[in-house]
């Protein structure tokens, strides 16, 4: 199993550009999440999904869109990049049994710089 | 609202010392789950432990132990006889029942010197 994969690993964008961060998992997990990690702030939840076709906002959703058309994929779209979105982005997936949260498996991260 | 506080930003110890990482949480849920994750210098995030709000038994796994006290809303993590390989950022996290809004603390960076 590849686990959780993310592409690209590094990306530099100019202000105003758009792009999609890719995330895929091969563990048949229902739950997937996107986090951003900034120095001194831990991981903050951007969006999450409890299954294909179902997404919801986390703590810091502004400026980001997500969709979940399949169980495996959960892309994160930046509509118009801003320097404040410079961060390391982690995708995670988790097994779910009913509404009980289990541990999350994280991808390797994408380091994004917006100039 | 849920909140996780890790008041220790950085801790530095010498190898073989014991070290405790503090985690204090706030939640109105009666059912919730607490986690610890480790982020070594390589950057990946690794799951260490999951504990539900009804299980206050302390847990020990090798040199690692966790002390969960609902009375003080704390879920502290102790490393006994620390090693250089324990150097990492450690995150405490909280999830409520019925959702996946996992809230992470800011993390504690642990330096273990040889």
Question: What do these coordinates show?
Answer:
The complex is a heterodimer of chains A (115) and B (114). Chain A has strands at 4-7, 10-13, 19-25, 31-37, 43-51, 54-57, 64-66, 76-78, 87-97, 100-106, 110-114. Chain A is mainly β. In chain A, strands 2, 4, 5, 6, 9, 10 and 11 form a 7-stranded mixed sheet that branches. Chain A has a 4-stranded antiparallel sheet with strand order 1-3-8-7, with no helix packed on it. With 114 residues, chain B is mainly beta. Chain B is 0% helix and 54% strand. In chain B, strand 7 and strand 8 (64-69) form a beta hairpin. The mean pLDDT of chain B is 93.
| Rg from alpha-carbon coordinates of chain B | 14 Å
User: Between the first and last Cα atoms of chain B, what is the distance in angstroms?
Assistant: 41 Å
Shape of chain A: globular
Q: Briefly note the structural class of the backbone of chain A.
A: mainly beta
Please bin the fraction of helical residues of chain A. under 10%
What is the count of β-strands of chain A? 11
Distance between the termini of chain A: 36 Å
Instruction: Round the mean pLDDT of chain B to the nearest integer and report it.
Output: 93
Count of runs of 4 or more consecutive helical residues of chain A: 0
Q: Structural class of the helix and strand makeup of chain B?
A: mainly beta
Sheet having the most strands of chain B: 6 strands, mixed
Secondary-structure element series of chain B: EEEEEEEEEEEE
Figure out the total of helices of chain B.
Answer: 0
Catalogue the unreliable spans of chain A: none
Number of strands of chain B: 12
Main sheet of chain A, how many strands, which sense, barrel?
A: 7 strands, mixed
Strand residues, percent of chain B: over 45%
Order of helices and strands of chain A: EEEEEEEEEEE
